Amino acid sequence: MFKRTTAVNKILKMQSRIRVIQGGTNAGKTYAIIPILIDRAIKEQRIKITVVAETLPAVKEGALDIFKTIMVETNRWIENNWNASALIYTFTNGSRMQFKSFDSDGKAKASGKRDILFLNEANHIPFIIADALMIRSAETYIDFNPDNEFWVHSEILPQHNAEFLLLTYLDNEGISKETLEDLMIKKQKAKTSNYWANWWRVYGEGQIGNLQGVVFSNWKTIDTIPSEARLLGIGLDFGYTADPSSAISVYKWNDKRIVKELFYRTGMLNSDIANALPKDTVIYADSAEPKSIEEIRRRGLQIYPVTKGKDSINYGIDVMQQQEYLVTSDSTNLIKELRGYCWDVDRTGKTTNKPQGGNDHCFIGDTLITTINGDVKIKDIQIGDFVLTSKGYKKVLKTFNNGMKQVNRYSMLLGTNFVHLCSTKEHKIKTTKGWKIISELQQNSTLYQFKYLTEKNIGYIKEKDILAVQIKDYTLKFGNFLKEKFQKVITFITLTEIEKIIIYQILLWFKLNCIYVLKVKKGLEKTQNGQKIFIQKELKKQKNGINQMKVENGIQNTEKKRGLIENIKYWFAKYVKKNTKQGIQENQNIVIQTAKLKHLEIGESWIAPVYDIMVEDCHEYFANGILVHNCIDALRYHEMESISTNKGVYNIY
User: Fold this and answer.
1) Distance of CA 265 to the CA centre of its chain
2) What does pTM read for this prediction?
3) Hey, what domains does the chain have and what are their CATH numbers?
4) Highest mean pLDDT of the ranges 14-18, 312-316, 600-604
5) Can you tell me the distance from the alpha carbon of 84 to that of 242, in angstroms, rounded to the nearest whole number?
6) Four-point Cα dihedral 198, 204, 209, 211, nearest 10
């Protein structure tokens, strides 16, 4: 039977436009918000209320079930007012309460404006969808269990128009005796293990905790670093755009480690990093950036690489788990990462001895990676392979089989072409405004992709390289026809710079009239006229004055004129040769272009083996033609070096 609780009274006192209700299990969050919304719908004329959860089953089994129960128990339910197909209840005064879920921000935007929005279990709703709904709502209620920090804490609570409320089971007088008894048993278990201590913190006290299966529970916060603490060194992880560069200083104090963020920022150049680090302290850095390490070392810093071999991640975890850590309270980003770093699970949901990627990014095995030898499935990439990045081809330093993870199919309409990626929802995609998480990409974002995705083959001809506009189509068709037929031959010849052979090859096809078979009769005339005009113009460029007039009037030696024509054909062929070189490495950036994201559809979700790679000097590569990210972690670098019995570079093979 419905009962007015302390939770209801506390929520009614909230006045801000966005009302955030965080709480543990059986705190009565949803049971308090739904009756408040029912009361508003009855008392206010023709208002629109939207209740949203992650999926339709979640809506039906959660908020909608509670709504029906309360309406029936309070004798307010009228069956004829209920639209079962649209999940909309219309009150007698014209107010409507609808129950929905959204799988894209486009659909959220299309749903229109509303008076009140309720995001139920908001930690399972992507921010891009939530944001599209909130901006179109006069008031918003948000509830969730605080398994971990998410977008509410980073994006919403810092706003001046947001209000926060914490609820626990003590605020719910309607809790059953059996449920209360179970909670008290778990409270006692919290004294026996870190797992149950974390569980009670989240679901009993309603406080932000670590995820279930968290890797690191051996840490607490500390406000300041004691004066007697001794600085041991610094761990450094390189980033640049949306992936930040970060440095963590590590102190020793009373057999404990105190760690503090030195910086956690994007857009830092190596000079900025060097200026932000002390010169009298040893620094252990990500070995994937040897050039950056050397540049910083030349600025007078004591910086060394940590070479990550086989099982280096588990080794680093094992080393860190042997210590007790105190994290300074202002190290907000480090705290967030420690709370979110969990052990992976298998198909049955059992915890494995391998950590989840944390913030790593993974693709299914059949994802095609662009290498110097063509497209290769990511599961078949080998250490030492060269993959394409925005900086050219870079060496693969490490490959990762990250086990079984939940992946989604993302279908992106870029221009007029669809590109499909199957990855974890955290994977980052490069846009012109920095790195963006794939599940949060927005319409009209500009992505980087191969030029041939939108212009097959013709991207190899640059307009500025065409001497005469009249023969643009001739050059384009001829060059590409030859490239398609003899791509390997042309590439080899171009690389070896055997000019006479390439010219001979092109002229041979010219003599055999291969280009003419691509044209209908009308097109042939246009091509022939274009060639004639081209030759005449080039002759004028090569000879001036009286000599030129003689040539045009046929007075000069015909063979000399013929020689000029052959010379023009020679240069004409060289331009075709020049443009075929755009496919080789030193010109590879020419075939990378940007494209507008017109539509993003998040499709089916399933559990699958996933993979990632580490790329030298550049945390990116092309997957299915799209520029994507790979990344790594930071505090572990210092601990692997300083605690290891081996001095110098850490190597495991």
Assistant:
1) 17
2) 0.44
3) 6-179 (3.40.50.300), 219-356+634-643 (3.30.420.280), 392-627 (no CATH)
4) 14-18
5) 44
6) 70
